[in-house]
Amino acid sequence: MGFVDEEWFLSRLLVQHFTIFGYARSKMTGAELRNMENFVKLDKKLKEHEAGRVSNRLFYLSIPPNIFIDAVRCASISASSSNGWTRVIVEKPFGRDSDSSAALTRYLKQFLEEDQIFRIDHYLGKELVENLSVLRFANLIFEPLWSRQYIRNVQFIFSEDFGTEGRGGYFDNYGIIRDIMQNHLLQILALFAMETPVSLDAEDIRNEKVKVLRSMRTLSMDDVVIGQYKSHTKGGITYPAYKDDKTAPKDSLTPTFAAAALFIDNARWDGVPFLKKAGKALLDWRAEIRVQFRHVPSNLYSRIFGIDLDRATNELVIRVQPDEAIYLKINNKVPGLGMRLDRSNLNLLYKARYSKEIPDAYERLLLDAIEGERRLFIRSDKLDAAWALFTPLLKELEDKRLIPEYYPYGSRGPVGAHYLAARYNVKWGNHGVDE
Fold it and tell me: How many C-beta neighbours within 10 Å does residue 290 have?
């Protein structure tokens, strides 16, 4: 039970009789795996530990996608609880497109009910993502501003300062759009943009998220930029290209970077660009949401700001990782006899405000699955809506074998991403600049 945080026990979040079984498939042939007589043995072993008590079983199947259905079938038939609940955590990828995702859901529902399926996206368990709805719905200063009337654009940024590092074989089959944009960033966008739910009940929240996704325009190549990192020498060190990864095909066109402009066609968000970018081998490691507000109409201080009104724009930044923080950029007078303005931050840095260690996202989600709390897990209709947005784009990329823009390892990514943002009069927020 080494991976279970001690806090679970200290906080009395787990019942007294709690057992974790690790079950591997090593030394099994494909035929043996599909036969799965071993699940009968697992069921017998579990019953020994349950000792006649009411048993609740949670299966976390961290296994390759091609054997997932067989494992679910055998777990359901041979190792379900006879007198309690049985739940299964499903790790992404949830298919590769609309058809394969729908097929996966269809097969799962041959053996499980929807309320037994917990599709896990660990980014939804991040502390700052969890706090997003609290920030909006529990603070009067934000909710009235949460619309096209006051918000100019919203940016969802995910960057890693490392490459695939031997995982190119897996990554090449999915790419950055499937790996990050279609799930992590899109799920956070839905949470950010949803209408006020009727209650905090899981289904009420998930209903509102689905409405957001169904209101979004299907993505086209005109609103997308793709890139792939190339080798780069800096400080006497040569950083490898994506194609230098021995597990990646040498002729691969798989994007390691993507930027996209998305739009929600509803009354609250009509015309507001939601920009997303995600990439590997970039300048820094960060995940954040940046809300850029509109300019102050007829600003009295426009003469002082000059022509660069963007520097005078209020911005709310929610930094998901690292160094979790929420800060609001405001305009402020510099102390002194003259009238000189400065851009300052009202900053909530979590490690300074809260001494308690922030729980890992998986801890929260595993505990939610045990407790049957579904609001942070992905419902099948939400998954369908998410794939509907991206499948035509992914098909076009692969059918036409579109060539990505190459960018140096350790850079800010393709130049095309800046042109995409500029088309909507947006500048990407730069971490560490004027902050």
Answer: 20
Residues with catalytic function: 184
Preceding peptide of 93 cis, ω within 30°: yes
Residue 166: how many other CB atoms lie within 10 Å: 12
- Work out the pLDDT band at 434, boundaries 50, 70, 90: very low
Tokens of 379: 């419902």
Instruction: Tell me the whole-structure pTM to 2 decimals.
Output: 0.86
Number of separate helices (H) and strands (E) present in the chain: 15, 14
What are the tokens at 98? 């609309």
The reply to whether omega before 322 is within 30° of 0 (cis) is yes
Eight-state DSSP code of residue 169:
H
Domains identified in the chain and CATH numbers: 6-122 (3.40.50.720), 124-358+392-423 (3.30.360.10)
User: Judging by beta carbons within 10 Å of its beta carbon (0-12, 13-18, 19+), is residue 38 exposed, middle or buried?
Assistant: middle
Q: Over the stretch 291-305, which tens digit does the pLDDT of each residue have?
A: 999 987 766 666 666
- 371: amino acid identity, one letter: E
Question: What is the rounded CA–CA span in Å between residue 231 and residue 228?
Answer: 10
Which residues 6+ apart lie within 8 Å of 323 measured at CB? 349, 350, 351
Going by the DSSP 8-state scheme, the letter that residue 123 receives in this structure is: G
Distance in angstroms (rounded) separating the CA atoms of residues 122 and 124: 5
Local structure of residue 140 (DSSP, 8 states)? T
Residues 111, 117, 120: CA angle, nearest 5 degrees: 140
| DSSP strands (E only) in 7-134 | 57-60, 86-91, 117-120
Q: Where are the beta strands (DSSP E) in 8-63?
A: 57-60
User: What does the alpha-carbon distance between residue 163 and residue 411 come to, in Å, rounded to a whole number?
Assistant: 12
* β strands within 235-364, DSSP E: 237-239, 257-262, 274-279, 286-293, 315-321, 325-333, 341-349
Q: How many CB atoms lie within 10 A of CB 16?
A: 5
- Give CA–CA dist 172/402, Å, rounded: 15
Looking only at the bridges linking them, the beta strands covering 86-91 and 57-60 are parallel
pLDDT per residue over 177-204, tens digit each? Answer: 998 999 899 999 999 999 999 998 989 9
Residues 255, 404: Cα–Cα separation, whole Å: 6
Cα(274)–Cα(271) distance, integer angstroms = 9
